[in-house]
Design goal:
alpha/beta, 12-stranded mixed sheet, 6-stranded antiparallel β-barrel, 23 strands, elongated
């Protein structure tokens, strides 16, 4: 069958300029019962080279595709108009020898070589190279609905991935489809951790996930989310409290916390050497006791000018209930009681600490169930049990629903969770539960909300570390965002696979284009024209850049749009439900 559509006119590196044949009157020829579209952005062409066949992807069509050297009308063939539109710019992406397709080219075409359209049989060879054992199917190729769209799972996890797209473009559905393809298949030991700030995936991934959330509903199979304060690095622990302290007082607090952790370490089953303990070490200690001792020192008064003889207590405090010791007030002049001249002046800061420790919204952090230390620093369960609950249960997916985390500490908590998990896998790299023996995929939903560019936060630092070094320790990232311009460029550039859904914002498109191969920039310009649920998959996870129509997940994520017309045609709800509203609001939980 005749599939010739044009000839090569210019070769510049891996970019080839093709002039379409004059006798090609139709751009939609019918060959072998199939209708083909010639000159579509993102479509493929084939250039025979003896036993090999080169394949390229169309990146420009029309006058813009004319090579610079041929744009002078005097150099154009006499039969062509000055602004001819019968030109294609083609990026060479791979070659086929016999029936085997490989990415990259070892030879280049010559001027006047024939260029053929790619038939359905060619597409099967191009897209069919990934084995079923090492790939997942997430949808169909848009150019050939009968062809499955496969992603290389090894490259997807170890080389990281970014999923970007405007609100309503189908990001959450794409994520859910990918998770279902992995967790619902043959990978019985797979581990996926989803950091979910808005609680979107509980319903869409039910049956294959274990959900942890604040104020969990056990009737729905949810589990209570705890993040023990003593597992946070010092800076993140201090940032959980209102106000700030000077550098001198920060060092003072660091010293006191180290003392508490050294004391608490003696209660551990495996006591670490004292020299290895720092303020960042994940060792239980009583924050109530720490507050009480700091507060007591600030309030203390003395009977002598040497400040060696404290005054008697007027009221005995209690560290458990955060009740301060009461001392006689400082007298005026040179009479007792005397002021503690060694106090650090942090009493107002400690009042803020007390307020935060008593705040019910923070009980997941400061009263973390069995991980709450007593005044001696003993806990019923250690951090190994928490990690096992998150990563070693009977389901392949763990969802950490952070929708109940107060916004002011969202960045710290999300970063602390990532650091706890990553550090755990780093130090277990030689064990069977380590990432090298049992890799972990970490999905960061709405990544832009707590991973902002230029922000020196624990979440940014930890994600940058995972992006740069996680591959060595079996930890892969999947960043999901609607605003790629707000993401840290270092992290985005480390993502080997890019899945871009519909995107209309020019700034976001440019940001995405900056992370892909220069010659594919024109493909990024097609993002505004993609259908809902359709995306471009670029990078190492696919053999060639692919335009894919993702499957529709069985259960829509919570972020999917409400059906307005259908819902507005229903009868109005009972006004008494507003009373229920206040109940849930004040209890800080969803029904």
């Amino acid at each position: 069958m005749n599939t010739v559509i044009g000839t090569v006119k210019s070769i510049a590196g891996n970019v080839v300029s093709v002039q379409l044949l004059e006798e090609l009157r139709s751009t939609m020829p019918i060959i072998g019962g199939y209708t083909y579209k010639v000159g579509q952005l993102g479509s493929f062409v084939r250039i025979p080279m003896g036993y090999a066949h080169l394949y390229g992807i169309v990146t420009k069509v029309g006058a813009d595709a004319i090579p610079e050297a041929l744009r002078d009308p005097l150099k154009l063939d006499s039969g062509n108009a000055r602004f001819s539109t019968r030109w294609l710019s083609v990026l060479l992406i791979g070659e086929r020898v016999a029936s085997k397709f490989e990415r990259g080219v070892t030879q280049f075409p010559n001027p006047e070589d024939e260029v053929h359209l790619v038939t359905f049989d060619d597409l099967k060879i191009i897209y069919g190279g990934l084995s079923e054992e090492k790939s997942i199917v997430v949808g169909n190729i848009s150019a050939a609905e009968g062809l499955p769209a496969r992603i290389d799972l090894d490259k997807l996890v170890t080389r990281h991935c970014a999923i970007v797209g405007a609100t309503g473009s189908g990001k959450s559905n794409a994520v859910a489809v990918m998770m279902e393809a992995i967790a619902g298949g043959k990978y019985k030991s797979c581990r996926i951790l989803i950091i979910d700030p808005h609680g979107e995936y509980d319903e869409s991934l039910r049956g294959m996930s274990k959900v942890f959330r604040i104020s969990a509903d056990s009737s729905k199979g949810q589990n209570e989310l705890y993040v023990p304060f003593w597992a946070l690095p010092l800076d993140e622990l201090l940032s959980a409290f209102p106000g700030s302290v000077s550098d001198v007082n920060r060092d003072y607090l660091r010293e006191k916390i180290v003392e508490q952790k050294i004391a608490g370490s003696s209660k551990l089953s495996n006591v670490p050497p004292r020299s290895a303990i720092t303020a960042d070490s994940p060792i239980p200690f009583s924050i109530n006791k720490l507050w009480f001792e700091l507060d007591d020192f600030e309030r203390r008064t003395f009977q002598d000018t040497g400040r060696s003889n404290p005054t008697a207590l007027l009221e005995v405090g209690d560290a458990t209930t955060l009740k301060s010791n009461g001392y006689p007030p400082v007298a005026m002049g040179a009479v007792a009681p005397f002021l503690n001249n060694r106090a650090k002046g942090i009493l107002s800061y400690l009042d803020g600490v007390k307020t935060r420790l008593l705040d019910q919204r923070y009980r997941f952090l400061f009263r973390p169930g069995d991980w709450s230390p007593d005044l001696a620093g003993s806990v019923q369960r250690d951090l190994d049990v928490l990690l096992a609950e998150w990563l070693a249960h009977d389901r392949p997916i763990t969802i950490l629903d952070l929708s109940g985390v107060p916004p002011e500490i969202m960045i710290s908590i999300s970063g602390a969770i990532l650091k706890i998990v990553y550090d755990g896998l780093f130090w277990s790299q030689n064990l069977a539960i380590g990432g090298r023996q049992q890799p972990l995929m970490v999905v960061l939903e709405e990544a832009h909300s707590y991973l902002r560019a230029g922000q020196n936060s624990i979440s940014s630092r930890t994600v940058q570390t995972i992006a740069k070094e996680g591959r060595k320790y079996g930890v892969g990232l999947v960043l999901v965002t609607q605003r790629p311009t707000e993401l840290d460029e270092t992290v985005l550039s480390q993502c080997g696979t890019l899945i871009a859904l519909r995107m209309t914002n020019k700034g976001d498109q440019s940001h995405v284009a900056a992370t892909v191969q220069d010659e594919l920039y024109d493909l990024v310009n097609t993002l505004p024209s993609l259908r809902v649920g359709e995306g471009l998959i670029l990078g190492e996870g696919v053999r060639i850049p692919s335009r894919v129509r993702f499957f529709k997940t069985s259960y829509a994520p919570r972020s999917s749009d409400p059906r307005v017309t259908e819902l507005w045609m229903r009868d109005k709800s009972d006004v008494a439900l507003y009373s229920e509203l206040m109940k849930y609001w004040r209890e800080q939980k969803l029904n």
